[in-house]
Amino acid sequence: MFLVITVISTLIMVIYLGTLISTYDERAYAFKVSEIQGYGNVIANKIITNGILSAASVADASAEMSALAEIYDGRIIVVDDNLKIIKDTYGLEEGKTLISEETILTFRGTNSLYRNNEERYVELTLPIIHPTTKNITGALIMSFSLDSILNMEKNLRDTAGVVGTLVFIVLVVFAAIYVRWLVRPFRRLKVSMDNFTDGYIDTVKSVHGFTEFEAVNDSFARMIERANALESSRQEFVSNVSHELKTPMTSIKVLADSLLSQEEVSNELYREFMVDINEEIERENKIINDLLSLVKLDKKSGEMNITNVNMNEMIEQILKRLQPIAEQKGVELVFESFRNVVAGVDEVKLSLALTNLVENAIKYNVEDGWVRVSLNADHKYFFVKVSDSGIGIPKEAQDLIFDRFYRVDKARSRGTGGTGLGLSITKNVVIMHKGAIKVFSKENEGTTFTVRIPLNYRSPIEGEVEEAQDEE
Ligand code: ADP
């Protein structure tokens, strides 16, 4: 960044000063030439006013010629049509013949202009034209020093060199300070990130800097927050899992211990205890199975196995499988389909998710209650609604029921064989399908879960790109 700033601004400065100086040279030179040409024409006209080019007529204009030569630090020579020099303001060549390419060309009607930078002079020729015949009767050859322009140009160049060097130094210092200022917040953020990675800190101080940097800093802070949240949820999960897995084990241990501690145990008592132990083992099994499903879902959604599934058939199948449990409880199962829905979903995962909802609706129902499952769709999404006439969920628990291992009434839910993992499995599956799940419930009246899932599954990467485009 430092190099880019200094190189580009130095380049701009050099080009600017260079252009300035060469423009000055061009302008000053053009101005001088046109001025001399103007005076030259006046003199040429004066020499030929009476129509004759002679020593006498030249003498008339002699004063002007000398003045012009003096002012512009130059020399003026007049030749007649025989190329004989009639007047030389230096007084050196009068009477001689001047044969030069420029003079001959002037007699053919071409003005010449010749600049010699090394010798620092400019030479220009002008024809002396007869006022009536318009014949070229002589020529003015004027050479002038370029000293004043070239000296001025040198002065400018020197000044530009000094100014340029000063500006360059200021620029380098400024660029160094600016770049240091620019990268300082990044250095601090890097230290923060390294400390986080090494485990010294678990939050990130907000570092101030320019707007874009602050945005990066905020994103990083949010990332850390999320990492912390994940870490604490992981710890909570591990401790919950241990606790949940330990409970049936403790019961089994207590049951077995009490059997072993008695000398004479009747067959009936053995049986009774064994039935209890068996139940606890089943419960342990169920927890482990649910945990395995959850762990599998926690893996990346790249493992989604999307096919076109007829949702009506899927729901009918689920209800058919759960019918025996519903009958046991005297609960009526109703399926209301508003249209035939075919959607791109992971059949196994979604079937598990919906089964959990219907199973809960049966489990947390009242004797002779009902469960209504409805299916509908619009052009983008399909909707599954599972309503029941059950015990309902208290308002304060409604946000928590999707958490892993959360159960409203632990004792009751244990009686119904619940693990507290069902709804978190369901929610995970819905989210993997880019859908949404909501719960509406009133205690002692019933509960409704609504699930909304896109008809066409979008992989997360496609989704992100489209969302980014939408934002634009
Ligand atoms: P569980 O295995 O205990 O059923 P879930 O995660 O499926 O675990 O549900 C979490 C808790 O939410 C349940 O323990 C229950 O208290 C409550 N719940 C879920 N569905 C319903 C429902 N349809 N009616 C009433 N309570 C429900």
Bound molecules: adenosine-5'-diphosphate
> Could you give the distance between the termini?
29 Å
Tell me what portion of residues adopts beta-strand conformation.
15-25%
CATH-assigned fold name of the largest domain: Heat Shock Protein 90
Task: Report the order of strands and helices.
Answer: HHEEHEEEHHHEHEEHEEHHEEH
Number of E-type strands: 12
- By CATH's scheme, which homologous superfamily of the largest domain applies? Histidine kinase-like ATPase, C-terminal domain
Count of discrete alpha- or pi-helical segments spanning 4 or more residues:
11
Task: Tell me what you see in this structure.
With 472 residues, this protein is α+β, with helices and mostly antiparallel strands. The protein folds into 3 domains: 2-153, Beta-Lactamase (2-Layer Sandwich); 211-297, Signal transduction histidine kinase, dimerisation/phosphotransfer (DHp) domain (Helix Hairpins, Orthogonal Bundle), CATH 1.10.287; 301-464, Heat Shock Protein 90, CATH 3.30.565.10. The protein is 57% helix and 18% strand. The strands form 3 sheets. It has a 5-stranded antiparallel sheet with strand order 2-1-5-4-3, sandwiched between helices. A 5-stranded mixed sheet has the order 7-9-10-12-11, covered by helices on one side. A hairpin with a 4-residue loop joins strand 1 (74-80) and strand 2 (85-88). The longest helix is centred in the middle third of the chain and has 52 residues, at 147-198. The radius of gyration is 51 Å and the shape is rod-shaped. Mean pLDDT is 88; it is low at 463-472. Residues 356, 360-361, 364, 388, 390-393, 401, 406-409, 413, 418-424, 447 line the site of adenosine-5'-diphosphate.
